[in-house]
Write a structure and sequence with these properties.
This protein has 600 residues and is mainly alpha-helical. Helix 8 runs antiparallel to helix 18, helix 19 packs across helix 21 and helix 24 runs antiparallel to helix 25. The chain contains 25 helices and 2 strands. It has a single domain, classed as Sodium/glucose cotransporter (Up-down Bundle), CATH 1.20.1730. The protein starts with a helix and ends in a 16-residue tail after the last helix.
């Protein structure tokens, strides 16, 4: 980096801190302001903030690595993470279901679903602990990716680079809460948009980055080394999934590719139908209305689609670099290598600032959401119920710092970015999925069943990491989710049901579909008919929304890879699906559903 690049990055960081500190006074009014922005943040700001939070530098490095090493089919591996598909579930129905609870955290939601007695308390406590553990793991993931990326440019160790980025992000996250998070994310989102536009135009129009007919890529081996493999442009740009692949080393886990894709789709369908947690769900708890929950999802997803032409562009540059120089050995370093090589002085500073923005926007959202679980669901609920707003604000900031320190320490036990992301999504995260799913669709599940299932699933995920760190991802998923399923069912059927009054209120407000027969029959036929009509539209729409999002993302990749037949087919399909979704979902978005109607 030149002095101009360093100056640009420095100005950006100072500006970021100033924007964050500007909202300190608003955030300091109380924990409602600090964690939810008083539910007065516009939907388009929440959507742009969500996009910036999803477009993290660690995730970008992983996906670039997959596309570089495997080709366009590497897109399907990202399905395992959930964000690729989970957004449409939030868009169609899960976002509004969560918003209707009027709570601050997913743990607090447990009392809305299971009541404020013993079973609601234990479900809330276990959920809070689980989300704090997930937050610590996510911070480790951020530290590993950001350190690897920033350290490459600054010429310092990844550990020191991660520490510096975390300290900077902590300044505005701790001081200004969700206000600082979403508005700095908005600021960062603009910079990210410039970054994406510049790289895509640079690659597409320069004429320097044409994919050769044959070339070599590299994949990581289990012993820490790397192996080159040859491929062709036809194979590398092909989006049609193969049943089997022949990849060595660490990527050998994806060789049963057809089964892996089906497995990932199944996993994400469960995850999407069960909702999500952390910083993503916090945006929906902050939404003003059902309509704004839908609009922020649509805006969020649309913006997120532009990540994929950027990723494809970086991968293409990585291929051309290998042809003109030497093959990039570590796929996870393709992003910093091509930026260092091809991006001119000055623009490089803006580009690096944009990618730092992507890293920080993920970090700040994760920390803010994680701290909420400690303050709202453990400290205020169990340790000091009569705590003043001032005391809660002090605890909010202190807990943010402690959670970050724990995450930073945990990052030293991780070998690479893919390892920690695979564990988060396919092991410890899988331990949460079954209880998260069943709570919406089965009236009989109670707080004990939810708590036991969550505890056993999380414990299985942690135990797997300690005892069997190198087993295949599908095995870790089966261990965590299978043990959680058994524990959830046993914990539910061996204990008493949730109080009927709690269930009636939950159904009346949330209006879910599923096995709610004994509760549904307590309401008038007219009210149930109104709910069924809404649910039928949502179920119909989700079957079109999932392929819509996949086609939207793949379409931009094909444009950058100049696969014109694939691009125009995907464009046509995306348009047709968009029209269907307009008539089945979008035109029915309401400002507020009258879910609080009186029960007969």
């Amino acid at each position: 980096m030149s002095s101009i690049d360093f100056t640009i990055v420095g100005i950006y960081i100072v500006g970021l801190v100033i924007v964050g500190l500007y909202f300190q006074q608003k955030a300091s009014k109380g924990i409602n302001s600090f964690f939810l922005g008083n539910r007065q943040i516009p939907w388009w700001v929440l959507g742009a903030s969500g996009m910036a939070s999803n477009l993290d530098v660690a995730g970008t490095m992983i996906i670039v690595a997959f596309i570089y090493a495997i080709g366009a089919r590497g897109f399907y591996i990202e399905i395992r993470g959930g964000v690729t598909l989970i957004m449409v579930f939030l868009m169609i129905f899960m976002g509004k279901w969560n918003r209707r609870a009027g709570v601050m955290t997913l743990a607090e939601w447990m009392e809305f679903r299971f009541g404020k007695g013993k079973q609601g308390n234990i479900a809330r406590f276990i959920m809070a602990i689980a989300m704090i553990l997930i937050t610590i793991a996510m911070i480790s993931y951020f530290a590993k990716g950001a350190g690897k990326f920033i350290g490459e440019f600054l010429g310092i160790s990844p550990e020191l680079a991660a520490f510096l980025m975390i300290v900077i992000a902590m300044i505005y996250t701790v001081s200004s809460g969700l206000y600082g998070v979403v508005y700095t994310d908005l600021f960062q989102g603009i910079l990210i948009a410039f970054t994406i536009a510049y790289v895509c135009i640079f690659v597409f129009a320069s004429g320097r980055f044409n994919i050769p007919d044959t070339f070599s890529v590299s994949v990581p081996l289990l012993d820490g080394g790397f192996q080159e493999i040859k491929t062709t442009a036809q194979n590398w740009t092909n989006i049609i999934p193969k049943l089997r692949m022949n990849l060595p080393g660490e990527y050998a886990k994806y060789n049963l590719f057809g089964i892996a894709i089906l497995f990932y789709v199944f996993k994400v369908a469960i995850e999407g139908s069960g909702g999500t947690g952390g910083y993503m769900i916090q945006r929906y708890f902050s939404a003003k209305s059902d309509k704004e929950a839908g609009l922020l999802s649509l805006f969020w997803t649309s913006l997120l689609s532009f990540r994929w032409p950027f990723i494809a562009s970086i991968a293409v540059m990585g291929i051309v670099y290998g042809v003109n120089h030497t093959v990039i050995a570590d796929p996870e370093t393709v992003l910093p290598v091509v930026i260092n090589t091809y991006i001119p002085m000055g623009i490089k500073g803006l580009l690096i600032a944009g990618l730092i923005a992507a890293a920080m926007s993920t970090f700040d959202s994760t920390v803010n959401a994680g701290a909420a679980y400690w303050v709202k669901d453990i400290y205020q609920r169990h340790i000091k119920p009569d705590a003043s707003e001032k005391s809660l604000m002090v605890m909010s900031r202190a807990s943010s710092i402690v959670i970050v320190i724990l995450g930073l320490l945990f990052s030293y036990t991780i070998r690479n970015i893919n390892e920690i992301w695979g564990w988060i999504t396919m092991s410890i995260g899988a331990g949460l999925m079954i209880p998260q799913l069943v709570r919406w669709y089965w009236w009989r599940i109670n707080g004990y069943g939810f708590a036991i299932g969550t505890f056993v699933g999380m414990f299985a995920g942690i135990l797997q990491k300690l005892l069997f760190p190198n087993i295949p991802e599908y095995t870790t998923f089966i261990i965590a989710s299978g043990s959680s399923l058994i524990a959830t069912i046993l914990g539910t059927v061996l204990t008493s049901p949730t109080d009927e009054k709690v269930l009636l209120n939950f159904y009346k407000v949330t209006r879910p579909f599923g096995a709610w027969g004994p509760i549904r029959e307590k309401f008038s036929q007219r009210f149930v008919s109104e709910i069924n009509k809404e649910n039928r539209r949502d179920i119909f729409s989700i079957f079109f929304a999932v392929p819509w999002q996949v086609c939207l993302f793949l379409m931009w990749m094909m444009l950058m890879m100049k696969r014109w037949n694939s691009f125009f087919i995907l464009l046509l399909v995306t348009i047709v699906l968009s029209i269907i979704l307009y008539f089945s979902w979008f035109r029915y978005l309401s400002t507020e559903v009258k879910a609080e109607g009186k029960r007969d």
